[in-house]
Specification:
Blueprint (H helix, E strand, L loop, with lengths): L6 H9 L2 H28 L19 H6 L16 E2 L5 E6 L8 E5 L5 E5 L3 E3 L2 E6 L3 E6 L2 E6 L28 H6 L1 E5 L1 H7 E8 L2 E9 L4 H5 L7 E5 L2 E2 L3 H9 L6 E8 L2 E9 L3
Parallel strand pairs: 1-8, 9-15
Antiparallel strand pairs: 2-3, 3-4, 5-6, 6-7, 7-8, 10-11, 11-12, 12-13, 12-14, 14-15
């Protein structure tokens, strides 16, 4: 079937010349160019975005370098150090080793519960009911106990107690000492040390609870001889010394300055869920 235009359509087509079609095309192109030119002008005179001039942030850490170094101890890293020292856990748990894997996030630790059975625990796994492994460091782990972060340290002390006495590492410059008798060990009496060795061989970090210092977490440093002679273990918390509660570093300074040869030093220590009393004699320099 072939369609043919009506007489009226033929008359209308005759009136439109070829020149008129070309003119219509030119007008359309001019209109498009005018619109694009207006858009280009608007992009040049307006800012990059609604927030004004944009500048790339310069890389770097906040605060002065001195302030950053004062808040970082590369020899004794404690989890959460930027927000305050976490408390040492009072649970009867023993940490035997850690494995850090930052690449895969599959860090784990070997921890024994109150029954003494060692288990490998991964991040986020439950250690005992209500307690999960939160973070792993080279010498300690952070556990989540009911939403509260607590620290558990590897036992790095030497000289475990035996049935007949306490095995103590010798102190440089001191005469050899026999093992303490059973009655002496039960009373907490340990071989003597001098004040300078206490300062050199024992490191103290405040334990902060609710914004208040409730004791000093101790660690072995230097030769560690006085630390072992005192019967301390890494992670122990000294809560009192000389019968007075420890509320800060100033209490330790007063205690050390008052030590004299021949006097006795008694300290109260929290270790896991136990409270121990340790006593030693102060020797001459």
């Amino acid at each position: 079937m072939r369609l043919s235009p009506t007489p009226r359509l033929r008359a209308l087509l005759r009136r439109i010349s070829a020149l008129d079609l070309y003119s219509l095309g030119e007008l359309l192109l001019l209109a498009v160019l005018a619109i694009q030119g207006a858009r280009l002008f608007w992009a040049i005179v307006t800012p990059v975005g609604p927030l004004g001039d944009w500048r790339a942030a310069q890389p770097g850490a906040g605060g002065s370098p001195a302030a950053i170094l004062r808040g970082f101890d590369p020899f004794f890293r404690v989890s959460g150090a930027q927000s305050g020292t976490a408390a040492v856990t009072s649970l009867q748990l023993t940490l035997f080793g850690t494995r850090i894997d930052d690449a895969t996030g599959l860090s784990s630790a070997i921890i024994a519960g109150p029954d003494g059975v060692q288990n490998s625990v991964g991040l986020g796994e439950e250690i005992v009911p209500g307690v999960r492994l939160k973070a792993v460091a080279f010498d300690h782990v952070t556990i989540d106990r009911g939403g509260k972060a607590e620290e558990l340290y590897i036992d790095q002390s030497s000289g475990p107690a035996t049935a007949t006495g306490v095995q103590v590492a010798p102190i440089p410059g001191a005469a050899p000492t026999a093992s303490a008798p059973a009655g002496s060990a039960a009373a907490g009496m340990l071989p003597g040390v001098n004040a300078s060795q206490l300062k050199a061989d024992i490191g103290f970090t405040p334990r902060i609870d609710s914004g208040r210092v409730t004791g000093m977490v101790v660690r072995s440093q230097g030769s560690g001889a006085a630390f072992r002679a005192m019967g301390l273990k890494d992670g122990d918390v000294v809560t009192a010394a000389g019968g007075r509660a420890i509320a800060g570093a100033a209490d330790l300074d007063r205690l050390f300055s008052g030590l004299t040869p021949g006097s006795s030093l008694s300290i109260t220590v929290e270790r896991g869920g136990q409270t121990l009393s340790l006593t030693t004699t102060i020797r001459g320099q």
